[in-house]
Design goal:
The complex is a heterodimer of chains A (342) and B (252).
Chain A lengths: L21 E10 L16 E5 L4 H5 L1 E7 L1 H18 L25 H6 L8 E2 L3 E2 L3 E6 H4 E7 L18 E7 L4 E9 L3 H13 L13 E11 L6 H12 L9 H13 L7 E4 L2 H15 L4 H10 L2 H16 L3 H6 L1
Antiparallel strand pairs in A: 1-9, 1-10, 2-3, 3-6, 5-9, 6-9, 7-8, 10-11
Chain B lengths: L7 E9 L8 E3 L2 E3 L6 H7 L8 E2 L9 H5 L7 E2 L3 E2 L5 E7 L8 E3 L2 E3 L5 H5 L15 E7 L4 E7 L7 E4 L4 E12 L1 E10 L3 E2 L8 E8 L6 E14 L2 E4 L6 H6 L1
Parallel strand pairs in B: 3-10
Antiparallel strand pairs in B: 1-11, 1-13, 2-3, 5-11, 6-11, 7-10, 8-9, 12-13, 14-17, 15-17, 16-17, 17-18
């Protein structure tokens, strides 16, 4: 059980104050179908950024345009994945204000479910919870020009042509950019003060989420892989630095499609010296990583999922009661503080 | 007056590895970040004062800058970070989505209760179609990735290699450039090039002229010309006796 190896950087229970425990996941995200990441609406180009190609030598001076998978495009589908299961196992709570079931972006977080405790909430007058899952913009290894293609979309009428029964021409003709399948994004995800079960929950969300970006019911298939797990008292280098370091290791002119195994070897070489960085105390070996993933998969399996999610939800019970009691004292009126003093 | 609480000051550079967002100004559905990083934000980000994961009860009513910052004011101080070059911004659009299969964008709100739709069409206002009081869609002006800021850190605290800044916890690299001693200059008229927090100026300081960047929680002052004692750190001249909530505490 390699999750034990992380025990020095895992919390035993949720606490309200930070205690400087960082777990860093190095994630490789690979597109398995056409994918769309853009921030300016349909028809606009893909999200991209001009950055240094690498960190050393010539690479340092070369500027290339890389695709960006922004942080909110990662976290949103991943937390929605977890919430699907919280909903299925009836672990979402009703909001105290209007009695509606916990849901994202409707002004009614329940403030009590696993998702609220882990990924946070801000709406409503009753307070806020910071997220303990920190994501970063992820970058493609290869330049955007190599991995972006164009598609023409035409939506034909039900009669199979571009003209309807009154022979009006269809206006549904458009050209749109897309990210090719087989594009690799390297990413660093930081977890702060999480418990073992919370770690299993988050890693499960990352591993099982399979669709990202726009039009995700049609495109946006993506595979996530965890390449490394670190425990530390500080944050480790950023996604951008990881991509640049990996690019340096890969060397030679690169072209799409990149060999996944070569890339994994290169990025593992790039993160190998992170274990000597200031503040790093744990680095899972390859075998331990396999163990950890197996552990997560067992907990998410059909047989154990229900008890796992309920146990995780149960772990917040004492914090829910504190909130409930506070409300009680409020409703009792102003006499309560006197009682406490006497 | 003549004692300097801090012997050393570190000149640090903040390198934005991700776009950084603060809601400095809100104009309609556009949320502007000013080209400055406040020193209170930096103190929290550097982990020098604790901030809880969840705010509850009274803590949601008002921020606790005084309670948090005054206890460390004698051991630590940091100036607001000023941009090194001309600052580059980026605009981004954002929209929020619900986790329901059916949804409808109404008055700045994602409505998910499909059964309310007929009511809404009759002109009635079911609860789920009322305007939302927090933004569901809009534009963000953010400090662009790659911008560099500089600031001075007083005191002996160890600094992390990376910090997280702003509403979206954007990753920022902390580079220590050099360490110099703090020298006290006698009373006189000086011009300060560095950004300063208006709340942290000592009360007896005579301010002659300055530019103001009006942002919450405290306005930032630049190009300050002042009369009084000053601290000199290499080339930088700043008013002496700067400390957290300096103006606020002496009023009490």
């Amino acid at each position: 059980m390699s999750i034990q190896k992380l025990s020095s950087v895992l919390a035993t229970t949720y606490e309200n104050f930070p205690k400087g425990r960082f777990i860093t996941l190095v994630v490789l995200r690979t597109t398995h179908s056409e994918t769309i990441f853009r921030t300016e609406g349909s028809g606009e180009p893909m999200c991209s950024e001009f950055v240094q190609a690498g960190l050393e030598g010539e690479n340092q001076k070369t500027i290339i345009q890389r695709l960006v998978m922004t942080k909110r495009k990662q976290i949103a589908p991943e937390r929605r994945y977890g919430r699907e299961h919280l909903r299925a196992h009836e672990l979402l709570y009703t909001n105290s204000k209007d009695g509606s079931l916990c849901s994202l972006n409707t002004n009614s977080p329940c403030e009590m479910c696993v998702d609220c405790f882990l990924y946070g909430f801000a709406a409503g007058g009753g307070g806020a919870q910071k997220s303990r899952i920190w994501t970063e913009d992820a970058f493609s290894i290869l330049p955007a020009s190599d991995v972006v293609g164009d598609r023409t979309i035409n939506a034909i009428y039900e009669n199979g042509t571009m003209r309807d029964e009154k022979s009006n021409a269809s206006t549904a003709l458009n050209t749109s950019e897309y990210i090719k399948p087989g594009v690799h994004f390297l990413d660093v995800v930081t977890l702060k003060d999480v418990t073992a079960d919370e770690l299993r929950y988050v890693v499960g969300n990352i591993l099982f989420t399979s669709r990202y970006g726009a039009v995700s019911s049609r495109v946006g298939r993506m595979e996530n892989q965890i390449l490394g797990v670190f425990g530390s008292i500080t944050e480790l280098p950023s996604s951008l630095e990881l991509v640049q370091a990996t690019y340096d290791v890969l060397g030679k002119p690169l072209e799409h499609p990149l060999n996944s195994n070569q890339l994994i070897t290169a990025s593992q070489q790039a993160i190998a010296n992170w274990r000597n960085r200031r503040g790093v105390s744990v680095h899972l070996s390859e075998a331990e990583l396999v163990n950890l993933i197996a552990d997560v998969e067992t907990h998410w399996s059909e047989a154990e999922r229900d008890s796992f999610l309920k146990r995780l939800s149960q772990s917040y019970e004492s914090f829910r009661q504190v909130a409930a009691e506070k409300k009680k004292t409020k409703s009792k009126g102003k006499n309560t503080p006197v009682e406490v003093e006497s | 007056m003549s004692t300097i609480p801090f012997q050393q000051a570190k000149l640090i550079e903040l390198y934005c590895l991700e776009p950084v967002f603060f809601a400095s100004r809100e104009l309609s559905d556009t949320y502007y970040t000013e080209g400055v990083i406040g020193n209170y934000a930096l103190t929290y980000a550097l982990g020098l004062v604790n901030s809880p994961y969840r705010l509850q009860g009274q803590a949601t009513g008002r921020p606790t800058y005084k309670e948090d910052l005054q206890p460390i004011a004698r051991d630590f101080y940091i100036l607001p970070a000023s941009p090194l070059d001309k600052i580059a911004f980026r605009f981004e659009r954002f929209n929020a989505l619900s986790d329901a299969y059916w949804y409808s964008m109404t008055n700045n709100r994602v409505a998910t209760a499909r059964e309310d739709l007929p009511l809404q069409r009759q002109g009635k206002k079911p609860n789920s179609f009322r305007p939302s009081n927090f933004p569901q869609t809009g534009k963000l002006r953010m400090i662009e990735r790659g911008n560099r800021f500089q600031t001075l850190v007083f005191g002996n605290s160890q600094l992390p290699d990376y910090i997280r800044l702003g509403k979206f916890m954007s990753k920022v690299k902390v580079n220590i450039l050099n360490e110099s001693s703090v020298n006290l200059l006698p009373e006189g008229e000086y011009q300060s090039q560095h950004y300063l927090n208006a709340t942290d100026l000592p009360q007896q300081l005579e301010t002659l002229a300055f530019d103001l960047i009006s942002i919450p929680p405290a306005p930032i002052i630049k190009n300050l010309r002042f009369r009084g004692c000053a601290w000199q750190i290499d080339e930088t001249i700043i008013p002496a006796d700067l400390h957290f909530c300096g103006r606020g505490s002496s009023n009490e």
